[in-house]
Amino acid sequence: MKRLIGTYIFISLFSFWTYAQEEEQSAEVFLEEYTDEFQESFFEALKQKGIQNYDRAIDLFLECKRLDSSNSVIDYELAKAYFLDKQYIQAQEYAVDALKAKPMDFWYLETLLRVLEKQGTSIDVIQQQLPFSNNKLQENLAVFYFKKRKYNDALKVLEGLGNSKFATDLTLKINDSIQRVNEKLTTAVKPEKTVQKEDGPIAQYQSQIEGLLVRGDFKNMEEVSKEALDSYPLQPYFHYAYGTALNRTSKSTKAVEVLESALDYLLDDVSLANKIYAELSKAYTAIGNASKANEYLNKIKTGL
After folding, report:
1. Which of the pair, 58 or 10, is modelled with greater confidence?
2. pLDDT tens readout for residues 188-242
3. DSSP for 206-248?
4. How far is it, in rounded angstroms, from Cα 128 to Cα 104?
């Protein structure tokens, strides 16, 4: 049981946006602090959330919070549970606490922004409550706006990041997306896909990942796809690969988040979309949510 709870908390605490800086810390040492009562409440809460019994999940996460008041993972899970239960004020409170504890975590920021969107407000309103000077937080904010196709908002954030490699790369990606949108408005011609050089690093990563996938070596696939995603966070294939590796190594809850995030980066790649839908169906099946599993299964387009 301790090893299972360790897997989840380790992944949640060291998300792929910050993992490289702290991966040497031992998850097993970290877990020595957790009691059986905490672990049982935590896993039962995840189960109840998975079957959409949000009231019960919230009660159990609050019990975990009582047992460990400083755990940002619990704040994050409470924010998500309250959000799903449409209790947005409470969701915002815990989402802010989680992000203050881990300002470099993309998933914490994304949860807070989704909560704010539901309330018809923006992060500007609560900016003073957050460590907004953190560059990684601002990078994550720009990525979120890009995923939501709020290109002007993303560019505004990037202006404050200067001429960093991240800002330059994402600005180019945004400008390319804006150009595609403009082309669709003025012509019926389908925009051409960006062609990567066959010997480029992205192609090399993809080839390596495909080989690991064929061999069923999901442990190494997780490591390689994580590395690729850290280097190229705007590539939907690497989100798909990392999510697939997580799902095939019994980390389906995290896999769902990564795979659903991959959909935000897709443009016109129907084949990759089908792969993501299929893997999402498997991941939701693994966590016991048959309704969502069928929903994604029905999205797969046949005859391609």
Report:
1. 58
2. 444 444 444 445 888 888 888 988 888 888 999 999 999 988 888 888 899 999 9
3. HHHHHHHHHHT-HHHHHHHHHHHHHH-TT-HHHHHHHHHHHHH
4. 17
Predicted local confidence at residue 247, as pLDDT: 92
- What torsion, rounded to 10 degrees, do the Cα atoms 198, 199, 200, 201 define? 120
The DSSP line for 131-200 is -TT-HHHHHHHHHHHHHTT-HHHHHHHHHTTTT-HHHHHHHHHHHHHHHHHHHHHH--SPPPPPPPPTTS
Q: CA-CA distance, 113 to 118, in Å (whole number)? A: 9
CA dihedral 104, 255, 78, 143 (to 10 degrees): 40
Domains of the chain plus CATH, in order, are 2-131 (1.25.40.10), 133-192 (no CATH), 201-299 (1.25.40.10)
Cα(18)–Cα(230) distance, integer angstroms: 9
Residues whose CB falls within 8 Å of the CB of residue 111, separated by 6 or more in sequence, listed in order: 76, 79, 80, 83, 91, 95, 98
Q: What is the pLDDT of residue 199?
A: 56
Helix (H/G/I), strand (E/B), else coil: 302? coil
